[in-house]
Amino acid sequence: MLNSNPSRIMFGLSLTLGIIIATSSNSWFTSWLGLELNLLSFIPIISSSFNSYSSEAALKYFLIQALGSTIILISATSMWLFMISPNSLILAALFLKMGAAPVHFWFPPIMQGVSWAHCIILMAPQKIAPLVLASYTITSPIPCYMIQTSSILSALVGAIGGLNQTLLRKILAYSSINHMGWMLAAISLSSNMFFTYILIYSIVTTSVVFLLYSNQIFHFKQMSSISNTKAKTLSFMALFSLGGLPPFLGFIPKLLVINSLTSANQFLWLTPLLLSSQITLFYYTRIILTTLTLHSPKVKTPVNNKMKSPLYTLSFINFTPLLFPLMSFYQF
């Protein structure tokens, strides 16, 4: 699943370094340099001379991220020339970079064009730097309203957009947009809550992606080709955990956000997030029912050779709160 090419390892390290520089710097210019290092490291990772789709996705990703970086540079001139705060313009650029609604249009096509391993990077680590930088712009009411609006739109767009999808990469892309709404709420409430959310979301997403990769599933109808009982059970737990259904692992970060928004009396913000989660659970349930109830005898190549991988057991982590119920409430 992962390429051990030395050049890919080097670009992976520089990608991580870019995230660290962007999130830990004390100036916007250094943060911009960290974002650019992250971008220039990710493009060689996802591009491939043997796959035209990945090359197209790399070009689209570069153009979108370059546009976001340009907007950040333009915002600096607005402060110098017009003496106005550039936070709103910077925040709009960061929304574009992270793929939050209403500027989410580029995210599903790029997800469809990259490999499963690159999907994991695109859905989780690549969102850390823009989200952390977005929290630095909350110094006036306008950025707060922008984050709240984008959070609600991302939750609704991610939920509704995934209903008519049959390609699993696009379903996961819209699911990631939906989770973006929850992440924006978490980062605006507490940085510790956000890092808890992104950590658990990364683990749950990795478990789902590895199950799909292990069984070579790319389309909704291919879910019926899973004949192994263990794989069916793990798929059931992983998808419901990604949807945030209690008492699976994915419910814990959502529970933290729900508790914080309730304590802050942000019910108008919380209600769309909860409604969108019900919609996402609907198309997760549709996938699970296909896996559990249908069976396709026309499987030409068995997938048992990948069932023995140690990473396959990662999906059992979604079962953790069921084994230790008190872990779900340790924050309270």
Descriptive account of the structure:
It is a multi-pass membrane protein. Its main location: mitochondrion. This protein is an all-alpha fold and 332 residues long. Helix content is 70%, strand content 0%.
Write the layout of secondary structure elements.
Blueprint: H1 6-24, H2 28-46, H3 52-82, H4 87-98, H5 107-113, H6 116-123, H7 125-135, H8 141-161, H9 168-189, H10 191-214, H11 229-242, H12 251-263, H13 267-293, H14 320-323
Helix pairs in contact: 1-2, 1-7, 2-3, 3-4, 3-5, 4-7, 4-8, 5-9, 6-10, 7-9, 8-9, 8-13, 9-10, 9-12, 9-13, 10-11, 10-12, 11-13
Elements, N to C (H/E): HHHHHHHHHHHHHH
How much helical structure, as a percent, in the residues? Answer: 55-70%
Could you name the ranges where pLDDT drops below 50 across 5 or more consecutive residues? Answer: 298-308, 326-332
Compute the number of helices.
Answer: 14
First and last CA, distance: 39 Å
Approximate shape: globular
Structural class label: mainly alpha
Query: Average pLDDT across residues?
Result: 84
Q: What is the gyration radius calculated from CA atoms?
A: 20 Å
Q: How many domain modules?
A: 1
The largest sheet, given as strand count, sense and whether it forms a barrel, is: none
Family: Belongs to the complex I subunit 2 family.
Enzyme class: translocase
Domain NADH:quinone oxidoreductase/Mrp antiporter transmembrane: 25-82, 88-279
Organism: Alpheus japonicus
